[in-house]
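Re: the 258-residue chain
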Amino acid sequence: MQLAIEPLNWVIVIVVLSLLFLALRKQHLSKRFLLLALADLLLIGWLPTSEVFLRALEDASPKASFTQASDQPLSGIIILGGAIEGSDIFTDRGEVSIYASAERITKAFELIRKYPQLPFIFSGFSGRLSPKGPSEADAFKQLITEQGLADRSGYYENQSRNTYENVLYLKPMMAQVGQQNIDGTPQPWLLITSASHMYRALKIFEKQDLSVIPIPVDYQTAKNLRWGTFDLEEGVQNWNKLTHEVLGLLAYWITGKI
């Protein structure tokens, strides 16, 4: 579905239709579709068109400060997958390849060092339909060793392939590893994921009655829109993230997961 609604993919469809009408000698229709393809490219590359919606999504989950987090008892740290390349690179090269969402990993290292007494859970197998190579959790475990943090209390969930499964498989682990307050209520967990993904993740945790404190990372937008900037590559990335989250929210709302 995401492939079908991304604006850049429509450029290909529109150009093919334009060539078809040209072959049918309907030049007026061919010209109109070429103009439509050009308008689509302008829509993608002019960054405010995607930033205005992506920024709203990133701002939907307020960022908790470390001061706020440290003022209350915590159960641990949760890191959602989606930043590590789950492919043959790890197997063939022996090196872990990280996506543009690398802040999920770097922030995890920061918090694990900042709160050495807290356990952490990394959740993720692969988001691909046909995954190859080891799971993201296995790759993160190697990164933890390389960072000299193997002595920390770490747990790894390596079955989930989407956000709902993340939460579903995390729930029993959080109950087993997490701590409780004096009144018996569970202490919250710090949750690390991309800012654009945090809103959907929080909604699923809330649906499962799980208490988490959002630590969003991997921001793609600033407070001010870049009205004079045209960047086709960055625009494609923004629209990819935006359509992915909108489809995810819609699908999870329809199926009652949020």
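The chain is about 55% helix and 10% strand.
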